[in-house]
Amino acid sequence: MKKMIILVGLLSAFTIKAETYLRVPVSDLTPVENMYASFEVQTPKFEKVILDCQSLIHELSFYQSSKVIRKIRMVDYFTCENIHNFIVQSKMENKSVCMEVAEESNALTLSNDDASDCQ
């Protein structure tokens, strides 16, 4: 019995929890009026997504029903700029853009996956 309890404890300690992801297709990127480094990311999944590279704290904010439902904060300007550049460059090359956000860690990944694969 004691061995069984130890075995169950060890198995539960080594259980790997799979992270789930929110996949968001990006259709366009437009400048926010009167802002020099803030952009609206056009996507069918959210009312509005703002990439803010201008404020003191750079972030990607997801809106639904005029409320922020998720924020991804970035440590530095260059991370924000790299997101902007990836989307702009992909659009110039007529490539699809897919944002993948880890549900728990809020880690952001960008890829050129087709919109049909980015649902």
Describe this structure in words.
- This protein has helices spanning 2-13, 77-92, and strands at 21-26, 28-31, 38-42, 48-52, 58-64, 67-74, 97-102, 108-111.
- With 119 residues, the chain is α+β, with helices and mostly antiparallel strands.
- It has a five-stranded antiparallel beta sheet with strand order 2-3-4-5-6, covered by helices on one side. It has a three-stranded antiparallel beta sheet with strand order 1-7-8.
- Strand 7 (97-102) and strand 8 form a beta hairpin.
- The longest helix has 16 residues, at 77-92.
- The chain is globular, with a radius of gyration of 19 Å.
- The termini are far apart.
- Mean pLDDT is 84; it is low at 1-15.
Overall shape: it is: globular
Individual helix count: 2
For the record, give the distance between the C-alpha atoms at the N and C termini, rounded to a whole number: 47 Å
Overall radius of gyration: 19 Å
Q: So what's the oligomer here?
A: single chain
- The secondary-structure element order is HEEEEEEHEE
**Main sheet makeup:** 5 strands, antiparallel
Helix content: 10-25%
Percentage of residues in DSSP E strands? 35-45%
Query: What is the spatial order of strands in the main beta sheet?
Result: 2-3-4-5-6
- Report the mean per-residue pLDDT as an integer: 84
Number of strand elements: 8
User: What class, by secondary structure content?
Assistant: alpha+beta
Identify low-pLDDT runs.
1-15
Keywords:
alpha+beta; globular; three-stranded antiparallel sheet; 119 residues; 8 strands; disordered N terminus
